[in-house]
Specification:
Layout lengths: L1 H24 L8 H11 L10 H16 L18 H24 L10 H9 L12 H20 L12 H23 L4 E4 L18 E4 L6 H25 L1 H6 L3 H13 L21 H24 L2
Antiparallel strand pairs: 1-2
Helix pairs in contact: 2-3, 3-4, 3-6, 3-8, 4-5, 4-7, 4-8, 5-6, 7-8, 7-11, 8-10, 8-11, 10-11
């Protein structure tokens, strides 16, 4: 009997320690000032001149990726030991953050660093971008952490080359068409998050997949009406995935506001971008509830997913307006 008590006490201590370890690792990164981070990074290189075009965006991408690796508890999406394997909110947050990081890395490789479609790709970005696409749940060699940090080193080389006035091979082109192409990619991301968050409350929807084109076809048949609802087990994951994506996007847009200042001013679009940033800042408010609630749309309990979907949808609507502004002459 005495031995059983000792075993129970040990297990109780293990559970309590596991809870506090999980709680510590569940702390989300704070917002940061992209200008200060960029100035600090340049200062470590002995550079006291203002950042040239593209450096703020590149450094912001570097910083959010490093934050993903070095936040409380580090990167845990591929951890296979308890209590980390039983945690899902922060891994979902990391997945959303990676979506935005990967999209920006791709845009920098194929658009921002190239003057035209026939120009050569930047060698640093050619090597960095694929490394960010390694499956974040992989635990075998090569590990995601090693690949992501290698990509960060390559991005640093690209950033330093941009800042070097004697090096004309490496460029960042802040043009309206380049920015528009990246924003189009972001639109689809935000639209997907909004739909998945809204599906926390099941609803019948009409199939509009082929709307607008009488000759359009699809591979397999889909019913005219469908019932969409997020699985009860996935509700908090969808919430934190959208929250992680919004955290990264918020900082990237603040960097874009600096690097594309002249383009935005010419299109009279700076205010539109600021409104998007404001909507995304609202997604980062503190969640006071110990869990993500899933009340019905007009029920007694709150529905955190619908609140997040509202901010994401408003940001996406403003993003579509911004894209239209950039398309105008």
């Amino acid at each position: 009997m005495q031995r059983l008590k000792h075993v129970l006490v040990v297990w109780a201590i293990v559970l309590v320690l596991g809870f506090f370890v999980a709680w510590w690792h569940s702390d989300e990164p704070q917002l940061f000032d992209v200008e200060q981070v960029t100035a600090k990074a340049l200062a470590t290189k002995g550079i006291d001149t203002p950042a040239v075009t593209g450096v703020t965006t590149t450094q912001t991408l570097i910083h959010v990726t490093e934050t993903l690796m070095y936040k409380h508890g580090g990167f845990i999406s591929n951890d296979i030991l308890p209590p980390f394997v039983m945690m899902d909110n922060i891994p979902a947050w990391e997945a959303g953050a990676l979506d935005m990081i990967r999209d920006m890395a791709l845009a920098m490789r194929k658009d921002f660093s190239r003057s035209q479609s026939q120009s050569l790709e930047n060698p640093f970005l050619v090597d960095a971008q694929p490394k960010l696409n390694i499956d974040h749940r992989r635990w075998a060699v090569p590990s995601p952490e090693d690949e992501y940090l290698t990509a960060v080193k390559l991005l640093r080389h690209y950033r330093d080359a941009l800042q070097n006035p004697a090096n004309r091979e490496h460029q960042f082109y802040a043009r309206a068409d380049n920015l528009r192409d990246w924003l189009k990619l972001v639109e689809k991301r935000l639209g997907g998050y909004s739909q998945r968050l809204s599906a926390s409350v099941g609803q019948e929807v009409l199939n509009t997949d082929l709307s607008g084109d009488s000759a359009a076809k699809q591979s397999t048949y889909s019913p005219e009406q469908m019932y969409l609802q997020t699985s009860w087990w996935r509700i908090d994951d969808e919430f934190y995935e959208a929250r992680g994506a919004a955290w990264v996007l918020l900082h990237l847009l603040k960097a874009i506001e600096i690097d594309f200042a002249d383009v935005l001013a010419k299109k009279n679009a700076a205010v539109s971008l600021q409104q998007i940033i404001r909507e995304l800042e609202a997604t980062q408010k503190t969640v006071w509830s110990p869990m993500v609630l899933n009340g019905s749309g007009f029920g007694v309990m709150a529905n955190h997913s619908l609140v997040m979907a509202n901010y994401i949808s408003r940001a996406n609507a403003a993003l579509i307006d911004l894209t239209d502004l950039l398309s105008q002459g």
